[in-house]
Amino acid sequence: MLFELLRLAIITTHPIQYNAPMFKLLAERGKIEVMVFYTWGESAINKYDPGFDKMIEWDVPLLKGYSFCFVKNVSANPGSNSFMGIDNPTLIKEISNWKADAVLVYGWCFKSHLKAIRYFHKKIPVIFRGDSTTLNEKKGLKKIARSLFLKWVYNHVDYALYVGVHNKSYFKKQGLKEDQLVLAPHAIDNSRFAHPDDEYNEAARKWRYELGVKEHELSILFAGKIEEVKNPAYLVALAKKMQGLPIKIIMVGNGHLEHEIKASSADCSNIIFLDFQNQRNMPVVYRLGDLFILPSKSETWGLGVNEAMACGKGVLVSDRCGCATDLVINDQNGYVFSIERTNDLLSKIKDLLVHKERVKIMGLASSKKVEDFSFLNTARAIEMTIKTIFTSNAHTK
């Protein structure tokens, strides 16, 4: 006797490199049937990214291997940067017509997403995915009002898939109970970054030589948007304190602060700037550095850390990044540091200069640590959640 697979409708704004491979994996595993409803519209495929300050067209396939549709977005200003930027009058009808057994919503802060959460509440199970934390919360009356509103939002959610420790704490603060929370770790395509042979390492060695990085020098890589929240000014300050030492900082990316940062570092011979690099080249980019650094002022996670670790790199991560607690073990695969105390991190880097063998040991520890943060474990968490819902008799089809 044949059984129909349970159907999961996934609501998310647009195809991104951190989600599409996991959707593909869910489809390939065949344990549930998946349909992804993209709410931004087809215009999101190639779009201007204000963070990078340029048009972005990813060079890895984001729409292959799983079922999806672009839902018509009638917003006058479509995009994921505002609540009204996602407005899909037909979304609920399309999901209902597809006969979804459950719905998984990525993010509530869009008109159509919140509307769908409210509509499907108590009709079919509502699962939520987000990575917010309480790390950088502001105090005051607005915070109290927002807290009350968030409790109301999450009261419409049956299960939340949390990405790590700080995200779990956030969900609990909004009123969700332990038995409503499922670990579905933030992940990247580990296998794509952890190349089995020496091809990427060799390409990186040649590139480092072309950039003028000497064999004996320690290189520290930053890759991301050159914007305020990523705190590129911290790297300039760090570079100025390291002048004269055999250390290079390589900054990869573009953004609206790019000209300002380059001007402020004009007297720093130990900083190298590279433009935005697309996805296919990133496994080589991460290997330009002996260490990877993320000095963000506020970061719900920081998936670049996952990518660097998958490339076998030790990591230096700000304590304001959500991933720091989950991914970094001090003195083993890197360090968590405070952006207020530059000298603390500087002393650790100087120590690594003296004991460079520890840099490779940290890289190996990173490779091992990041194995648990995989698309496979995320897919299994989603499948387990669906199985739990429909075997507990909490809901019926």
Throw out a few tags for this protein.
single chain, 397 residues, alpha/beta, Rossmann fold, 2 domains, seven-stranded parallel beta sheet, six-stranded parallel beta sheet, 15 strands, 36% helix, globular
Can you summarize this structure?
The chain has 15 helices and 15 strands. With 397 residues, it is of the alpha/beta class. It folds into 2 domains: 7-187 and 374-391, Rossmann fold; 193-371, 3-Layer(aba) Sandwich (Rossmann fold), CATH 3.40.50.2000.
Along the chain, the helix and strand elements come as EHEEEEHEHEHEHEHHEHEHEHEHEHEHHH
Spatial shape: globular
Q: How many individual domains? A: 2
Strand order of the largest sheet: 5-2-1-6-7-8-9
CATH topology of the largest domain: Rossmann fold
Kindly state the mean pLDDT as a whole number?
Answer: 92
What's the CATH first level of the largest domain? Alpha Beta
- Write the CATH architecture name of the largest domain: 3-Layer(aba) Sandwich
Helix content: 25-40%
CATH superfamily of the largest domain: Glycogen Phosphorylase B
Number of distinct beta strands: 15
Model regions low in confidence, pLDDT < 50 over at least 5 residues: none
